[in-house]
Amino acid sequence: MQQVASPAFKSCSDCPIRHRAVCAKCDSDELELLEDIKYYRSFSAGQTVMWAGDHMDFVASVVSGVATLTQTMEDGRTQMVGLLLPSDFVGRPGRGEAAYTVTATSDLVMCCFRRKPFEQMIGTTPHIAHRLLEMTLDELDAAREWMLVLGRKTAREKIASLLSIIARRDALLGLAPPGKELQFELPLTREAMADYLGLTLETVSRQMSALKRDGVIILAGKRVVTVPDMDRLMTEAGDDSDGGYLV
Amino acid sequence: MQQVASPAFKSCSDCPIRHRAVCAKCDSDELELLEDIKYYRSFSAGQTVMWAGDHMDFVASVVSGVATLTQTMEDGRTQMVGLLLPSDFVGRPGRGEAAYTVTATSDLVMCCFRRKPFEQMIGTTPHIAHRLLEMTLDELDAAREWMLVLGRKTAREKIASLLSIIARRDALLGLAPPGKELQFELPLTREAMADYLGLTLETVSRQMSALKRDGVIILAGKRVVTVPDMDRLMTEAGDDSDGGYLV
DNA sequence: CGTAATTTTGATTGTAGTCAATCCCCGTGG
DNA sequence: CCACGGGGATTGACTACAATCAAAATTACG
User: Which residue intervals define the domain HTH crp-type in the entry (chains A, B) (predicted)?
Assistant: First the structure.
């Protein structure tokens, strides 16, 4: 299944998520303690990292790639409840069971910390505890934003919302070219988009086609999206273009 | 508007939310420090505690009563994103602006902490920081559970889910009589239920009637609900009755 | 190139939304 | 004491949006 992997960098100080992850505030002494309890694991696109209910003896940071958290009902209905990007944190200190199924949607590298020693470090290392609180509060804000999308937006607005979230994030990370025109790659299949938005994949496909027909987006292949006018997309999402005190 | 109120108890040690709120883990020295930065405020049912975007110079615990967190789009569509019960925490350390509108749905008493000194205490008092992290993680779990409800459940399942959440909570707090039969009072109007569940109030009303007609619930007046068979209600909610590792 | 997986498009159905009327419970005032 | 009024809740008729069922088309891949 998964492999224990050596990533392309040597130590925490070279880590690409060094200043965004749960370890962001740690000094070099603290990083050394973390080095002792950490190991890397890699997953290829499509692999399940863990199933809801599995025993879990680690928590982890996403180093590279994209993963999803999903919840599934007995009859198969599935809802994505989290989208994990590089630097995001997986797992809950104090809980030995996975609450959600975690799936790699692209090739994925995770930096795993053995759970027990990590929990102890939370008690002894305020830098970690504080950063974890900050990240959890951000997650909670994102979940609440998402609740508005799920509960009150139309299918078209839902798609536009998802696209604008991804577009903004990529722009923020400097992954997008400059200029007014934004371009990015969707890290999700149509089905994953449907699970994110509480729609069927047919509806996702129809609304993507409609947004394309109306010139809100331009598609190159299935996955590469160009947004000629970001304000237009935000309007389609039902967000005021000036909103977004939180990026 | 709101009044500075004296609650029915004298000090933190007599406080009804003493062992569940953000101060749950504090020792008496720490409580004394909190006493210095806290004050009580009361609101009557229906009052708005604060509007999204308002300046906020405090964070708070709900002492008694029920409040809601809501998000509203420009055209008026409203989604509840949090239901605040006694011991729940309001506000985000480090943020001076309210992200959501807070409304009292019953008479409400809040224990407010001046924001700046409270933020400093988070840094110096691990008992508070740790409890706040724990509570935030619980909130995040609740939000994710809720996302499944919003995204994937039918109107009938949504209503049954909400009722079972309230029923379980009341049973847990010992508010309900013993026996197999559960009875509780809805702390929400039909409109608030609709905002919680991403429905219209007409649909809420119809599904309440349907559940009553089918014998899943018994209504005494509009607000008092009796559940003759909790497992039946859970099944209607689409949850397996054995689920719920987290109450 | 051929097969499977993913996506798009089409036709039809069904659930919840909308618009509208009525009801019910209370409190108020004539 | 009863009429009145208002907010909340229920019920009804109709509509619309997204789901479902089904087929075709495009892409990825061995």
Answer: 153-231
Q: Write out the E strands in chain A.
A: 3-4, 38-43, 48-50, 58-64, 67-72, 78-84, 89-90, 101-104, 108-114, 182-185, 218-220, 224-227
Residue B53 in tokens: 């975007």
From the list A137, A198, A238, the residue facing B92 with the nearest CB is A137
**CB–CB of B137 and A137 under 8 A?**
no
Task: List bases, strand C, within 7 Å of protein CB.
Answer: 6-11, 15-20, 25-26
Instruction: Tell me the CATH number of domain A153-236, given options 3.50.50.60, 1.10.10.10, 3.30.420.40, 3.40.50.1000.
Output: 1.10.10.10
Contacts A128 to B, Cβ<8 Å: none
Q: Which CATH architecture has domain A3-146?
A: Sandwich (2.60)
Instruction: Write out chain A's pLDDT in tens, 247 residues.
Output: 445 566 777 788 889 999 999 999 999 999 999 999 999 999 999 999 999 999 999 999 999 999 999 999 999 999 999 999 999 999 999 999 999 999 999 999 999 999 999 999 999 999 999 999 999 999 999 999 999 999 999 999 999 999 999 998 888 766 555 556 889 989 899 999 999 999 999 999 999 999 999 999 999 888 899 999 999 999 999 987 654 444 3
